[in-house]
Write a structure and sequence with these properties.
3 domains, five-stranded antiparallel sheet, alpha+beta, Uridine Diphospho-n-acetylenolpyruvylglucosamine Reductase, domain 2, globular, single chain, binds flavin-adenine dinucleotide, binds uridine-diphosphate-2(N-acetylglucosaminyl) butyric acid, Uridine Diphospho-n-acetylenolpyruvylglucosamine Reductase, domain 1, 7 helices, about 25% helix, Uridine Diphospho-n-acetylenolpyruvylglucosamine Reductase, domain 3, 20 strands
Length: about 325
């Protein structure tokens, strides 16, 4: 375990932004982590797969890449299995392992980039499933007193793209493992319209979890850019939640504006649709821009600066606010 100096982070963020970290280390156990923290007096940045960060400047601290590995069965009966998974496991590989073993519930979250340890951070979600529906508990290292704390699902205070780790406990914990509960008797969730349509297109009438995963992978691949080919961090903004009156005002002029009712009577609007309506979809400025198939995704065509992409996001926020009176919130972590 070596602390390296002035390392480029380009390969460690899916936006492909070329900034450096003044110090960089990879850790694979709590002992490693304790050792590193003992000799370090700089601010730290925890890195998983780097698929939800935008670097706007060099990082003047210690970037710690989380490589905690391992998948362990904690509990099992005829119907369910509980798996404790190291935070450094690659999310999609874990999903594929579950599908191979017939563990259901996680298939709608196929092909999301990043690591297991970041999945509770923003309560990753896609195609009708959020990871909060699968998490039993989260094991985390308290950076203030070096103790280990177990967060129950309730204590994680999960919400839409939110958890206690992104809000009241921000920066306090290094997530070391996540325990998931999965079903051994498949019960699939195809409630998200696009999945049903894709299964019909694939000519599948009685879908297995593998079929649902394939459908999700196919839908995602058709609109989300592969970070290996085009730098991006997925949705740059959250979908805004608005009051019914606000939604109704938009529907007067745009009766087809996508909107989804929420349990508390408010409505989620589609940020991608709002951004597209403001004329940004596919807009390219030098070597960065707005993806042409999904306006919620900002892209780096190669060599872009994070600060340029950040400034573009500010212009988009202003433009959507001027047109619709809605202030978009960034989903990506800005550094
Ligand atoms: P990183 O980007 O490395 O880190 C994200 C944040 O979490 C940072 O603040 C970091 O400091 C912190 N962090 C990371 N690991 C730990 C840890 N172990 N302990 C404490 N803090 C930690 N997200 C969705 O929800 N749904 C999607 O459908 C989706 N699609 C995407 C598609 C593409 C093409 C891309 C590029 C991204 C997409 N994302 C999506 C966003 C991203 O994949 C998720 O947010 C993912 O969970 C980030 O994981 P990561 O390991 O890359 O985290
Ligand atoms: N839309 C447009 N124009 C666009 C993009 C979208 O009109 O450019 C419309 C679509 O036609 C659809 C609606 O907006 O009617 C929603 O679009 P989509 O189904 O593509 O989903 P999204 O709301 O844009 C969210 C998540 C994604 C997740 C998908 C699938 C957020 C911020 N984003 O996107 O998550 O994969 O749903 O569930 O909630 C991520 O977080 O990084 C991410 C990719």
């Amino acid at each position: 375990m070596e602390i390296k100096k002035n390392i480029s982070l380009k390969a460690y963020n899916t936006f492909g932004i070329d900034v450096s970290a003044s110090n960089f280390v990879e850790v694979s156990s709590v002992e490693n982590l304790k050792e590193v923290l003992l000799v370090n007096n700089k601010p730290i940045l925890i890195l998983g797969g780097g698929s939800n960060v935008l670097f706007t400047k060099n990082y003047e601290g210690l970037a710690i890449k989380n490589n905690f590995k391992g998948i362990e069965i904690v509990n099992e009966n005829q119907d369910q299995i509980s798996l404790k998974v190291g935070a450094g496991e690659v999310w999609h590989e874990f999903v594929m392992d579950c599908i191979e073993n017939g563990y259901a519930g996680i298939e709608n979250l196929s092909l999301i980039p990043g690591n297991v340890g970041a999945s509770p951070m923003q309560n990753i979600g896609a195609y009708g499933t959020e990871v909060k529906d699968l998490i039993n508990e989260v094991e985390a290292f308290d950076l203030r007193d070096n103790s280990i704390r177990i967060f129950s699902n309730i204590e994680c205070d999960f919400g839409y793209r939110s958890s206690v780790f992104k809000t009241s406990e921000k920066g306090n914990f290094f997530i070391t493992a996540v325990t998931f509960k999965l079903n051994k008797k498949a019960g699939i969730n195809t409630s998200y319209g696009a999945i049903e349509a894709e299964l019909v297109r694939m000519n599948v009438s009685s879908p297995t979890i593998k079929d649902v995963s394939n459908a999700v992978i196919s839908i995602r691949s058709s609109k989300l850019p592969d970070p290996k080919l085009l730098g991006n961090s997925g949705s740059f903004f959250k979908n805004p939640i608005v009051a019914e009156e606000e939604k109704n005002k938009i529907l007067i002029n745009y009766p087809n504006a996508p909107h989804y009712s929420q349990p508390n009577g408010s409505f989620k609007m589609a940020a991608g649709w709002l951004i597209e309506k403001c004329g940004w979809k596919g807009k390219r400025i030098d070597n960065y821009g707005v993806h042409d198939k999904q306006a919620l995704v900002l892209v780096n065509y190669g060599g872009a600066k994070g600060s340029d992409i950040y400034n573009l996001s500010t212009q988009i926020i202003t433009s959507v606010n001027d047109t619709f009176g809605i202030i978009l919130e960034r989903e990506v972590n800005i550094l």
